[in-house]
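Sample intake sheet
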Amino acid sequence: MKSNFIQKIKDSVLSHAPKGYISFVMLILIMIVPISSCKKSFLDVVPDNVSTIANAFVSKTEAEKYLFTCYSYLPTETDPTYNVGLTAGDEVWVEDPANHIRSTNVLQLPRGFQNSSDPIANYMNGTRDAAANYKAIRDCNVFIENVSDQTKVRDLDIDTRERWIAEAQFLKAFYHFQLFRAYGPIPIIDKNLAIDASIDEIRVKRRPVDEVVNYIADLYDKAAAKLPLTIRNEGSELGRVTKAAALSMKAKLLVTAASPLFNGNPDYSSFKNKDGEQLFNPAFSAEKWQRAADACKTAIDFCESQNISLYTFPTPTIPLSDTTMTQMSIRNAMSEKWNDELIWGLTANNNINYNSFFQSMCAGQYDFNNADAAKSANRPLLGPTIKMAKMFYTKNGVPINEDKTLDFSDIAQLKVGTHADRFNIKEGETTARLNFDREPRYYADLGFDRGVWYMANSPTKTDENTWWLKSRGAEVGQSSPIPIAGFYMKKALNWHYEWATVTYINYPWPEMRLSDLYLLYSEALNEAQGPVADVYTYVNRIRARAGLPTVQQSWSNFSINPTKYTTKDGMRSIIQRERSLELCFEGHRFWDLLRWKTAGVELNGNVTGWSISENSPELYYRERTIYSRHFVIPRDYLWPIQESDLLVNQNLVQNPNW
C-alpha cells in the first residue's frame, strides 16, 4: 500500500511543478527576489493560489507542504531514461532509444552525445532529464530560513521544528552531493542572496573540491544530530530521512572524495578559477581514506544498532530448495519493499507509473513445460550486456578468467541442462557454457535464455518445474523485441509481479542499503591501511549471503592468482568487482567507474550480446558487436557546464576540455 508520504510528495509535485526552463545563472538571480507575483510558479507551495513565501509558513500544515516540495526534487531513479547511473554505464544497453522508448537524452549519454551547449542530464538546471538541484537547494534554503524563525509556524512544536530543519539540511547536502560527483568543484549555495546583493555576490564562483566536501559533510552532521533514529509512523513517513541515512550518505560522500578522481588527481592540477584559485588539491592524501573509513564504521555501527541487517529471505510455507532460497535473498535485497537492509529508499518520484515502466524493462517471457501457457509481457529493450554476464564469478567465487578448475574459454559452447541444474537452467534444454557453473548472484540477477525464473505465482507452487525463459528469435509468438544482448535485469523485478495481468509491485529505490555501506567501508579501510581483518570481514559477510566462500578460501583454492587478496592492489580489484556484482542495476557502477578513474578503460570498446534474432542455439549463441563506444579521457570524467551560464556569469569556469 502506498504510504501517505509518497502521495503527499506526488500531490506536491503535481501542484507545484516547474512552468519552464530556468538556468542556473537565472536561478542565482531569482534567489535575491522575493516572491510576490500572483502567477503560479514552481515555488508556489501554499493553498488557494496564494503565492507569497510568508503564507507558506503560517501554519504547520502549510510548512509541511513546503518540506514535501524540498523532497520532490529527489532523482527519478526508477525510470531508466532518467537514471544516469544505470543507463550511462556498461551494465546494460538499449537498442534504439529514439525508436522504441520515449525521447530522452540520458539514453544517448553512452553513445557519446554529451555536449556543453545543451548538456545531457544537466544537474545544475534540470531542464529535461535530471534533477534541478540548484532549484532544490534554493527551496531548502527558504524552508530552513523560515522554519528556523521562531516567530513563524507558531503551531509547530520544537521537536518537530528541529526534525524538519534537519530533513531540509540533509536534502540540501544530498543535492550538493549530486552536483559534486558530476561537476567536482561547484558553487556552494549556503544561503539565498539578499535583495540588495551586489553584482559580484550574484556572480558566484566554483569552490575548491575540499571546501565543497567539508561543507556537505558538515550539513550531514548537523542533520544527523536532529533526525529521528527510525521512522516511527510507517503508514505516513516511509521515505523520509533518518539519522542512519545521514551518517551513511556522509560516508558515501567521503569515500567519493577520497577516490582517485578527487584525491590528488594530476589531470586537474592546473584547473583554477579565473582569479587563480586552485580547484583541485594536487596532493594525494591517505588521511582522506582513513576519514572515509571512520565515517563508514560509524554509520555501520549505528545502522546495526537500529536492527538494519543484510536481508535474508524468510522461510516460506512452501518448500524451496537451498539454491532458490539463496537467490531470493539476493534478489529481494533490492526489490522487496522496505526490507531490513534498506537504509534509505527513494519514494518521492517513485510513483507507480515510473516504477511500472522500470519493471517492464526487467520482465521476461517465460514458458512452462513448452505448453500453451506461455506468457509474454512488455518485453524490455534495455538489458544487461555480455560483459556484465562475464563479470559474475564462477560457482567457486572467483572471476571466470581466474578459475583454475573451470574452463570458460568458449563461452558459446552448447550444453544441456541436467537434473542437477534444474533450479538454474531448464532441464533438458540447450544453452551456452557461459550460463553453467556460475555463482548464485548470476542466476538471481540475470534472466537468460533457458534460465529458470522463480516467481511467487509459480504454477507448481514450488521451484520444481517452474517458469523458465525463452528468448530466442520468433519463439512463442514474440510480438516485441527482447533485450538487445539477450539478458534481462531479473533482480530488479519484484518477485510478486504477475505476467498474465501485468501487475507491478511498487518498491522504494534502494539509494543506500547496508551491503553498499559494508563495501564502502572495506574499500576505504583497504586504501587507508591495506587488507586488515575488517576489510575481509565485511566483504565476506556479503559473500556469505550470496552463497559464496570467503575471499581467502576462494582465491587460495581456486584462483590462478592465489595470493591476490593479500595485497592492497589485489584486494582493491576484488572489492571493486564485489561492488559491481552486489550492487548491479542499482545505479552505482557508473559513478564508481568515474571516481575510481577506470571509466577510460571500462567505458571504451565494443558492447556485445548474443545474436537474439536467431532461433537455433547454434546461431543464437554467437557473440556479436552491438555498438562501439568511446569515453574521452579526461574530459568525460566531469560534466560540462552549459555554455549560456558561462556567458552570463563570467566568474564561472568550464570543466577542462569541454
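Comment: Residues 57-314+641-648 form a domain with the Serine Threonine Protein Phosphatase 5, Tetratricopeptide repeat fold (CATH 1.25.40.390). Confidence is low (pLDDT under 50) at residues 13-22, 29-51, 368-378.
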